[in-house]
Task: inverse folding
């Protein structure tokens, strides 16, 4: 079994681990999400199919005799996910998710505690969604030629895709690829999903010339990177806040190239987003649009800043 | 005559030793309570300032303590590494039982220690701070009681050991 999945399975109680380990390799390899609900099912999503845990502790596609998960079991997984350290995850809990070793994201639902109009934490946990982080070495090889301007610089690149279409996976491999080609890459990994840092060690291969600022807000992190690590390229995931625009402009003024991602479907979505200013200024010379048709992570098209098709 | 003298000396030595052993348990209780309070202060600092995970904190405490407290945190560390989803309060409870059941801590000390582990790591930082403050006060009171008890009883048991030994020898002679 891949070490990648090991980090996820180790968060489950023994009985559930046994069920997960007995899954066919094809399902394990394609696994995208595991969802767990209080008084509900344990469900796996893989290759567009749902698998429900049954009373005999085996996963099947039908939900007729599904096993009901107790509140204690879900709470046990929640505590295990947080390494029994709720106090260390207050900021993450207020966002509704935490990132575990390996860069996997765990979404959390329950009763929110509001203080001064902001979500402070979540209690009475009702469901969890563990989203697997994937590392596919070589996935960017086919597209790197469209990003490289020459041997010393790249086009500023924006990866656009709806959720679960593989934008972080592609970004991760692009970082590794560019790092191996001699570029110094500074990664601002706000949600610890790109590098999957654990105790200062990156869990995913991002190349030999990559520096990672882990858990740092993107807008602050980009500026810190510029000042401290003199990168050729700054890479970050999921921009979209107004503060990010200023940080991107700072990076560009410092002569640093940028690779980043954003949620969306089309070029028009970008024009309606918070980064409209950057798009209008034609900052991103390469825009890679992903989709999950026919499969997750398909590059639908690559366009330039004028919305002209490159491939 | 020589045999009688050797026997008498042995009886007195043995009963004195028993007296010393009983009196040393009062000393041990103070030592263990002091070590526990110190460990809890380290936990407090690690949580509040470094925001280290509980597993890392326990691991540090296991490595940096010896004797009973070191064994206690090693037991928790081992259980944590093999628990997979087990509630931390159960792990803490089991380790308290395993380590202190036959030691010098009183029943109240043990109950307090078990209570301390109940909400550990399950609450936010502010509430965790409040819990620490509460248990500092409780453990300080236990320590005060242990010091008083030692002053009152330790010398009594030591003297009693010697006296009982002499009494037995006198009766036998």
Result:
């Amino acid at each position: 079994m891949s070490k990648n999945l090991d980090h996820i399975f180790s968060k489950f109680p023994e009985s559930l681990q046994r069920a997960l380990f007995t899954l066919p390799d094809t399902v394990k390899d394609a696994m995208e999400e595991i969802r767990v609900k209080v008084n509900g099912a344990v469900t796996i999503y893989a290759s567009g199919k749902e698998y429900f845990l049954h009373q005999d502790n085996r996963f099947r596609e039908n939900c007729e005799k599904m096993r009901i998960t107790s509140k204690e079991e879900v709470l046990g997984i929640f505590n295990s996910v947080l390494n029994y350290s709720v106090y260390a995850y207050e900021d993450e809990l207020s966002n509704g998710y935490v990132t575990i070793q390996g860069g996997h994201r765990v979404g959390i639902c329950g009763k929110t505690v509001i203080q001064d109009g902001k979500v402070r934490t979540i209690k009475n946990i009702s469901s969890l969604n563990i989203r697997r982080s994937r590392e596919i070495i070589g996935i960017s090889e086919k597209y790197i030629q469209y990003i490289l301007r020459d041997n010393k610089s790249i086009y500023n690149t924006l990866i656009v895709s709806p959720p679960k279409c593989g934008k972080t996976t592609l970004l991760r491999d692009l970082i590794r690829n560019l790092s191996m080609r001699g570029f110094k890459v500074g990664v601002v990994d706000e949600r610890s999903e790109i590098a999957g840092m654990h105790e200062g060690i990156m869990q995913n291969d991002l190349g030999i010339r990559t520096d990672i600022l882990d858990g740092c807000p993107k807008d602050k992190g980009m500026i810190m990177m510029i000042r401290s690590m003199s990168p050729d390229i700054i890479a970050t995931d999921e921009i979209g806040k107004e503060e990010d625009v200023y940080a991107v402009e700072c990076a560009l003024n410092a002569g640093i190239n940028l690779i980043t991602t954003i949620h969306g479907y089309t070029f028009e979505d970008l024009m309606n987003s918070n980064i409209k200013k950057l798009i209008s200024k034609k900052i991103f010379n390469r825009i890679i649009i992903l989709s999950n048709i026919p499969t997750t992570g398909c590059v639908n098209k690559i366009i330039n800043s004028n919305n002209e098709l490159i491939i | 005559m020589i045999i009688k003298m050797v026997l008498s000396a042995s009886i007195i030595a043995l009963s004195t030793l028993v007296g010393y052993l009983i009196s040393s348990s009062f000393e041990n209780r103070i030592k263990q309570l002091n070590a526990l309070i110190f460990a809890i202060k380290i936990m407090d600092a690690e949580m509040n300032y470094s925001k280290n995970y509980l597993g890392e904190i326990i691991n540090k405490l296991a490595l940096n303590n010896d004797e009973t407290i070191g064994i206690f945190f090693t037991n928790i560390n081992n259980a944590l590494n093999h628990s997979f989803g087990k509630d931390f309060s159960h792990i803490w409870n089991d380790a308290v039982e395993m380590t202190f059941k036959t030691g010098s801590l009183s029943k109240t000390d043990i109950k307090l220690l078990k209570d301390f582990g109940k909400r550990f790591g399950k609450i936010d930082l502010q509430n965790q701070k409040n819990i620490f403050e509460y248990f500092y006060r409780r453990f300080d009171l236990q320590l005060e009681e242990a010091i008083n008890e030692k002053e009152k009883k330790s010398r009594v048991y030591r003297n009693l050991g010697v006296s009982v030994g002499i009494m037995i020898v006198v009766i036998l002679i």
